[in-house]
């Protein structure tokens, strides 16, 4: 029994092979693939287009697509009962007429990204052509919100020579098929809807239909958050702490600006060229501007702190605004190493010197004038030293108050800039 079934199967296959060969010869006796397969040249041939997105390879949009085109050929029909019930045959696509559907916004310089595959011909004349293709299309990229940006890339398919009165296009589905899509490490596909358009060009009065697939992409920002954004935020929060360092430490002017410059170069390398400044680029520029300003202010404050004996007295408005008002806000009460003596102590010391001079004058009249001159010189020198110390102490207090004041100002600026960036992420 098994042997008889095996011979029967071989006989059927051989019979179908003979009928398929006979069918192929009968179909293409008077057939040409150079003309539209319609019985009347006034008739419109309908082509159904379906796109299956398989993979995103690169941006400027390189995609791997499965393109399915379905149409009816009026000359490739047969009665399947005459050919032992043969419903379909598969032949090379070059044998039949094919619609000249191309990607309008093609960016490939070779135009050879498609593969020559077989077509499936049904007995009623329906032809289905499944063709894998790697397409390169032009896509306008807006990096204003990089790395939290979303892009819309359009793929427009249409006939290159046939107008709408000769060949019409129809959507097989409302959107591209994403069932077999291979996930991309950088982009998340949110959809690919299809829309049919009928365009009237200025050169011709005939309509030209096309089908436009809009690929909605959203960038996966986790890589940029952990490698570019978070390090930048950490460096930004380090910059205001430079104001908290003592002026005598010698390390207040740091290399934070150099580190941010290196990160800025990394951002520039990972972005496509665009006329818009990205969000992370604006954040880096704002942070670098803030650090530059903090470095300049640090140098200015260190100059105030290290003012020498030739320093002028603190102006009245500075003493009133900084030493009294801002010092209370910044909780600066002590003078550190440059504490000043009170005015009463100076007066008491001056009276002591006068009393000593009187006692010396009473005990030794002969040396009175010399002793008084020496005592007057020592007293004047002491008063000048105390005045210099008082001025230097006031200027150092001014520098300390300015350090703390600008530290909090820059902390608030960094906090709000980081909050703005996090708000864009959410």
Q: How many structural domains?
A: 2
Mean pLDDT across all amino acids: 76
Structure annotation, total helices: 7
Order of helices and strands: HEEEEEEEEEEEHHHHHH
Q: How many strands, what sense, and barrel or not for the largest sheet?
A: 6 strands, mixed
CATH homolog superfamily of the largest domain: Neurotransmitter-gated ion-channel ligand-binding domain
What spatial order of strands do you see in the largest sheet? 3-5-6-2-1-8
CATH class of the largest domain: Mainly Beta
**CATH architectural type of the largest domain:** Distorted Sandwich
Query: Radius of gyration over alpha carbons?
Result: 44 Å
**Separation, N- and C-terminal Cα atoms:** 72 Å
CATH overall fold name of the largest domain = Acetylcholine Binding Protein, Chain: A
Identify low-pLDDT runs: 1-13, 335-345
Q: Tally of extended strands?
A: 11
- Indicate the overall shape: rod-shaped
The chain-level structural class is: alpha+beta
Helix content: 40-55%
Beta strand %: 15-25%
Protein name: Neuronal acetylcholine receptor subunit alpha-10-like
Transmembrane segments: 223-247, 283-302, 404-423
Subcellular location: Synaptic cell membrane
Membrane topology: Multi-pass membrane protein
Question: Could you characterize the architecture of this molecule?
Answer:
It contains 7 helices and 11 strands. Strand 1 and strand 2 form a beta hairpin. 42% of the residues lie in helices and 21% in strands. The chain has 2 domains: 219 residues, Acetylcholine Binding Protein, Chain: A (Distorted Sandwich), CATH 2.70.170; 201 residues. The protein is α+β, with helices and mostly antiparallel strands. One of its GO terms (cellular component) is postsynaptic membrane. Its main location: membrane. GO terms for molecular function: acetylcholine-gated monoatomic cation-selective channel activity; transmembrane signaling receptor activity. Belongs to the ligand-gated ion channel (TC 1.A.9) family.
């Amino acid at each position: 029994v098994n042997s008889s079934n095996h011979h029967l199967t071989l006989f059927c296959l051989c019979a179908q092979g003979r009928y398929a060969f006979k069918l192929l010869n009968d179909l293409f006796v008077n057939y040409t693939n150079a003309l539209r397969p319609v019985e009347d040249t006034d008739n419109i041939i309908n082509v159904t287009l379906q796109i299956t997105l398989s993979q995103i390879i690169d941006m400027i949009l390189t995609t791997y697509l499965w393109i399915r085109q379905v149409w009816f050929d009026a000359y490739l029909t047969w009665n399947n009962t005459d050919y032992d019930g043969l419903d379909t045959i598969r032949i090379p696509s070059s044998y039949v007429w094919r619609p000249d559907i191309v990607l309008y916004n093609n960016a490939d310089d070779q135009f050879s990204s498609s593969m020559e595959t077989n077509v499936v011909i049904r007995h009623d004349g329906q032809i289905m052509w499944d063709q894998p293709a790697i397409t390169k299309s032009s896509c306008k990229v807006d990096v204003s919100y990089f790395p939290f940006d979303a892009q819309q890339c359009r793929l427009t398919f249409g006939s290159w020579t046939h107008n709408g009165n000769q060949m019409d296009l129809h959507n097989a589905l409302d959107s591209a098929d994403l069932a077999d899509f291979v996930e991309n490490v950088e982009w998340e596909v949110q959809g690919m809807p299809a829309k049919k358009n009928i365009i009237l060009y200025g050169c011709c009065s005939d309509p030209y239909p096309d089908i436009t697939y809009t690929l909605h992409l959203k960038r996966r920002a986790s890589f940029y958050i952990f490698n570019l954004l978070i390090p930048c935020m950490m460096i930004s929060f380090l910059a205001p702490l430079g104001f908290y360092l003592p002026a005598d430490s010698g390390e207040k002017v740091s290399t934070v600006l150099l580190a941010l410059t290196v990160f800025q170069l990394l951002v520039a390398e990972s972005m496509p060229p665009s006329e818009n400044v990205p969000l992370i680029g604006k954040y880096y520029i704002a942070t670098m501007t803030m650090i530059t300003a903090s470095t300049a202010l640090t140098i200015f404050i260190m100059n105030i702190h290290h003012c020498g004996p030739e320093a002028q007295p603190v102006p009245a408005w500075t003493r009133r605004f900084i030493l009294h008002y801002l010092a209370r806000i910044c909780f600066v009460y002590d003078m550190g190493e440059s504490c000043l003596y009170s005015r009463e102590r100076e007066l008491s010391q001056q009276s002591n010197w006068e009393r000593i001079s009187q006692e010396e004058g009473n005990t030794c009249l002969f040396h009175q004038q010399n002793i008084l001159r020496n005592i007057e010189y020592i007293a004047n020198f002491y008063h000048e030293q105390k005045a210099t110390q008082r001025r230097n102490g006031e200027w150092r207090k001014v520098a300390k108050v300015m350090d703390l004041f600008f530290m909090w100002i820059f902390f608030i600026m960094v906090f709000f800039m980081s909050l703005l960036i996090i708000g864009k992420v959410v």
